[in-house]
Amino acid sequence: MAKIELKKPVVDEIKKYAEEASSAVLVDYRGLTVEQDTVLRKKLREAGVVYKVYKNTMLHIAFEGTDYAQLDSHLEGPTAIAFGMEDATAPARIIKEFAKTAPAIEFKAGVVEGTYYDAEGITAIADIPSRDVLISKLLGSLQSPISNLARVIKQIAEKGDVAAE
User: Fold this and answer.
1) Over the stretch 81-111, which tens digit does the pLDDT of each residue have?
2) Which residues are registered as beta bridge partners of 98?
């Protein structure tokens, strides 16, 4: 079997993840212990993130003609990729949090919803709360004025009851 035939399933797998993902983050994982890598993979999996290590040439071939082709210049040395399938900021957020206990892992670059970010940009993206957190904050801020209005109306009604006596 020719080498190219052996590579095709791997390239197809990467393409499938790239099509379904809303983000992809490249990291240099040199220096991670097996135990640290296992912990990181578990955290990412729980958040719906696909974390894989592929050969750089496979990633390069799979990314041709996609938004992820912007990452080609970072495909050097050991490279792992984290695809954000459900939450675009989850890969960056989880890896940044994990890096506090395992400084060996470093961001290379990433693409979030079609926009390229270098290592600094991905670090900034990591500070954005998850979609669920943002929605709950929005709902909380929308609910607050209504709750305050209800309290004021109740107090006015109670004063009116006292004045009527």
Assistant:
1) 999 998 888 999 999 999 999 888 999 999 9
2) none
- Of residues 47, 79, 77, the one with CA closest to residue 68: 79
The residue type found at 159 is K
> pTM (2 decimals)?
0.75
Q: What spatial distance separates the first Cα and last Cα of the chain, rounded to whole Å?
A: 96
Tokens encoding 165: 């006596």
Q: Which residue stretches of the chain are H helix?
A: 3-20, 34-46, 56-63, 90-99, 119-125, 131-164
Do the beta carbons of residue 87 and residue 80 sit within 8 Å?
no
* 3 state DSSP class of 70: helix
Longest CA pairwise span in the chain (Å): 96
